[in-house]
Design a protein that fits this description.
The protein is an alpha+beta fold. The protein is 48% helix and 11% strand. It contains ten helices and six strands; from the N terminus they run αααααααββαβαββαβ. The strands form two sheets. It has a four-stranded antiparallel sheet. α1 (20-37) packs parallel to α8, α6 (103-110) packs across α7 (114-127) and α9 (184-195) crosses α10. The chain is elongated, with a radius of gyration of 20 Å. The N and C termini lie far apart (44 Å). The relative contact order is 0.14.
Length: 263
């Protein structure tokens, strides 16, 4: 089998710095955003990705802000078994994230049948994206553990880049939250765990508009049907950030400005 030119296909080289777990979550986030951008949020594959992303450790609040899906839709998808729409990348992402690395664990995480999981694992192993870890004296009764290979991580990197290239944020609200300057670094660190590692949020410093800004602001992009729902989602994001950093942060985010969708 010829080697695939992974690195040559990557435009955003920052994805290469992502380790297996972060790459798995980044791909699932990018896939869901791409689906939302194309208005494909009622498909079985979208619901399957919601379940996989949650099991891979993506917080519910981030699923909501990226997709504009109703809360009940997300909760229902998380509990619904994945059928024929189960794909190799979803299984590879679960393995890479450490959420499930045995056949039974993958079946539990996806709700798919053991035969579906066996076929996907066989395909991933044959392609060189996953390998079976076997101890020299491992009893046959001990379940096999699967791990992502270096080639598998490269595959995730390429897929992340491809999905991000297809995703636009012109349908997203951008909410600017005034933050205490002393907590700036802590907020960014917590945001990476809750909101992922991409360009859908960031710190804007007061030097950008010194006559209009009172201090640094956290800009967060949110997909929502209207401003009211966008603010509700940002309040949920802020609650998670506050829980991760300090109860001394304001209980309610101080919204400094709002930029509406561009389409």
């Amino acid at each position: 089998m010829a080697e695939e030119p992974f690195d040559d296909d990557i435009v955003d080289m920052s994805v290469v710095d992502l380790g297996p777990r972060d790459a798995a979550q980044a791909l699932l986030r990018a896939q869901l955003e791409s689906d939302a951008g194309r208005k494909q949020t009622t498909t079985a594959s979208f619901r399957a990705r919601l379940r996989v992303a949650r099991h891979a450790g993506v917080p519910i609040v981030d699923l909501l802000r990226r997709t504009s899906a109703a809360r009940q839709t997300v909760y229902d998808a998380i509990n619904a078994p994945i059928g024929r729409e189960l794909d190799e990348l979803s299984v590879l992402a679960l393995i890479a994230s450490g959420a499930a690395q045995t056949s039974q664990g993958l079946s539990n995480a996806t709700g798919s049948t053991s035969e579906q999981i066996r076929r996907v694992l066989s395909s991933l192993h044959h392609a060189g994206y996953a390998e079976m870890l076997v101890a020299p004296s491992q009893p046959a009764s001990v379940p096999s553990v699967f791990s992502i290979t270096a080639k598998g991580v490269q595959r995730l990197h390429v897929e992340i880049d491809n999905e991000r290239l297809r995703t636009r944020h012109t349908d997203s609200w951008t909410i600017f939250i005034l933050i205490p300057e002393r907590h700036e670094h802590a907020i960014l660190a917590a945001a990476a765990g809750i909101l992922g590692s991409d360009h859908s949020y960031g710190i804007v410093h007061a030097q950008v508009a010194p006559t209009q800004m009172r201090g640094p602001e956290l800009a967060v992009q949110v997909r929502a049907p209207d401003l009211r729902e966008a603010i509700v989602l940002v309040e949920d994001v802020w609650a998670d950030l506050r829980a991760a950093i300090s109860p001394r942060l304001p209980a309610v985010p101080h919204i400094a400005a709002v930029a509406p969708p561009r389409e």
